[in-house]
Design a protein that fits this description.
Elements lengths: L4 H12 L2 H10 L4 E2 H7 L4 H13 L3 E6 L2 E6 L2 H32 L1
Antiparallel strand pairs: 1-3, 2-3
Amino acid sequence: MSVPLYQAKAEMFRVLGHPVRIRVLELLQAGPRPVRDLLAEIDVEPSNLSQQLAVLRRASVVVSFRSGGSVMYALSTPAVADLLAAGRRILGQVLADRDGLLAELRDSRA
């Protein structure tokens, strides 16, 4: 039985709701990376990174494959990078709106 679209979207956002997972996705935007490179860039224990990669893999946000002796990870679709870019734009706008409101509050006191 399939779940409603809104529920599937909520689950996708839940999967994205962890700083380590977001950092992994940011790093993978440049292309496939071996686990050792991800570990070098992200200050977490190997077991924690492994758990976070497993969550992303189960949600089909990333894919893994072997290349030589390395396990490589890659974004499953370029749409993941688009989603991250949209998040940056939204965050930028929200913060800009807050800065504008702060400036307005300061001006109203004068």
